[in-house]
From TrEMBL:
Signal peptide: none annotated. The keyword Cytoplasm does not apply. Residues 145-292 form the GFO/IDH/MocA-like oxidoreductase domain. This is Gfo/Idh/MocA family oxidoreductase. Gene3D superfamilies: Dihydrodipicolinate Reductase, domain 2, NAD(P)-binding Rossmann-like Domain. Keywords: Oxidoreductase. Residues 6-126 form the Gfo/Idh/MocA-like oxidoreductase N-terminal domain. It comes from the Bacteria.
Amino acid sequence: MSEQTLRVGMIGYAFMGAAHSQGWRNAPRFFDLPRRIELTAVAGRNAEAVTAAAEQYGFAATETDWRALIERDDIDLVDICTPGNLHAEIALAALRSGKHVLCEKPLANTVEEAEEMAAAAREAAARGVFAMCGYSYRRTPALAYAKQLIDEGRIGTIRHVRGQYLQDWLHDADAPMTWRLDRTASGSGALGDIGAHLIDTTQWLTGQSISGVSALLETFVTSRPLAGERSGLGGHGDTSEGAPRGEVTVDDAALFTARFDGGAVGSFEASRFALGHKNAFRVEVNGTDGSVAFDFEDNNVLQFFDGRDPAGQQGFRRILVTEPEHPYVAAWWPPGHGIGYEHGFTHQVVDLVTALAEHRQPTPSFDDALQVQRVLAAVETSAGDASAWTGV
Ligand code: SOE
């Protein structure tokens, strides 16, 4: 990294590429960053599409081979926004060539890949080259404020963790078959795509790691019309006679209970079939002295129950997390004006660039993300173990 500028190369330009690049563009406009950001190049296989993406997102150049992007000597950080099957290969190559890495979640498609990535990141960190995984919900102000309250001891010893991530973009049985439904590209389904957020966020919030799980996975619809080039969420595929179809090889829904190593117990549900819920990322933590509850569909709000309030005045307080003293908020709008989904990605850039400028490890590290990956694998193992199922 030059002393003043961080030169970014992004690989992949679909939904996450759009979200990340707006983060890179907006962070220096609203926050006082220790480095100037330069959007140097974006890579994607389709020359026409990657050129259009570069223009739309503000990258100066394009590459049609990600290896060429990594070999460039005018890039300091590689931002990986591809499907999961490419994360390991790209991250390893980027770290080897001395580039910092931001990698979208989940870190990898398997624990073995994640282990290799975490080992490479540890080795790179010793050379002053850092890697971070993009669990961006940590940077939602209401959740960051919940973390602050928990760390201050406001809810006491944690007993219960409750997580739900509910979407409905697959409820139509003829919604098209995109890479997210193909295990070789995505690693798993609702479990890794959205359940991983629950795992990361609750481990981070509580400061405890999940040490064991009992799980079930379900695939409701096993064949869907092929999507062609499409990679987005939802829609209705081509069901005309003879139109090509593909086999869904991932879970549509994942449910599990968990034990945390600090004594808490948790219950989790991730689904893309929860009709009516678009992006209901919900987390509740109950402690001996209080509780916090969050729902992304009301993302500027944190519910806080203070068990130390006089009994007659107790109740969940709806805190509008839009005051300048709340995490990240001072950079944005006047109280009550609120922020949205994209801001998590902007805050992610702020925290990443700040850590890099201070030559310290940004979080979540690849080791943190490896722990999430181990939980994902444990859920699959548990769900596949028929002997652990008690029939009625
Ligand atoms: C699709 O389910 C998705 O875009 C996830 O891949 C993201 O991680 C999440 O933030 C929103 O939903």
